[in-house]
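Hey L., structure's done. Input below.
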Amino acid sequence: MFSAPPQTIGSISAGALLGTTGSSDLVSSINASFSNSTFLSGLSESFHDIRNSFMQNVVRPIQIGRQAIASRVNRLLNPDMIRPLIKEEDFQSVPPSMYMPIVLYPPVRRLLEQGRISGFGFDPDHLPEEDVYGRLINNGTVYDVLGSADKDGNVWLTWEWCSLDPNLSFDELDAIEKTRETIARILSNTMFDPTDYPCERG
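Output:
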């Protein structure tokens, strides 16, 4: 049986574990320790598996827990208002007033119906049939001007409102549209669940 002398994995402060120095600092500290040639020199390949297991079962849960706590703190400190979410980190603290505009976004709704995301806890069977936010965003929009022109060359712009529509300003609709554009990038380039960041989609 091979026996190796005890090794340290570097100094990791309580602040790093609790998030005061940032998750990237924590990961860098651990990576630097495990990549140290003294630590790995002469040891079997199985230590790579141990390192990967440690990162997955210890470091990753710490990151997720820290981000979840930060998200809840942000929700307490930040007002509930519709605002543009333009980068991934913004989805750590989604204002409740934006839950429905996000869940009704067709690509997100499909994932929720497939059971692949949390959807802020919404039951897909009890969601409104229409993506009212998409209709309001696209009111008066013509995507193909030439194809939409009549025989005289006129193009008609159509707006549609219903009595039960949410009362949203143009700035709020713009914020929802920008947020949906960000979600499209997240869904295309990552496996994150935009309704439960930083958890991944199923």
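The longest helix spans residues 46-77. The CA atoms of residues 91 and 194 lie 6 Å apart.

-- N.
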